Amino acid sequence: MATQIEGRGDVTQRTEGQRTFRRPRQNFETWSWFFMRISGLVLIFLALVHFAITHIVNDVVETDHEFVAARWDNPLWRLYDWALLALGLLHGLNGLRWIIDDYVRTPARRAWVKALLYSVTGALFFYGTLTIVTYG
What's the whole-model pTM score? Predict the structure, then answer.
């Protein structure tokens, strides 16, 4: 005989002395945790390629307006740099959001600090995107 006991979002089923647990429902924090792992892996690849191209393949002294303009003539390089910008900012935003939740205890102060964080991140994303789209 199977009975179900519900509590705290998980469901326990008992079947003849055995317990089987179903996975809890997925929420924002679950997807946030998953995003950090995936974006971290993608950022490693993007950052290493960016570093190799701008510091190893090409001399840093030769990186100037003409180098960037020639590279950004290809829309795929703009997309690549925009992905690096977007993932870097969102990865950092998510990590700082976790730190704020851990260390800022007062709910009012936490709301102000997060509002400041979201505003700065939004401004950096806006100006970075504007630069990538309109450069040249």
Answer: 0.78
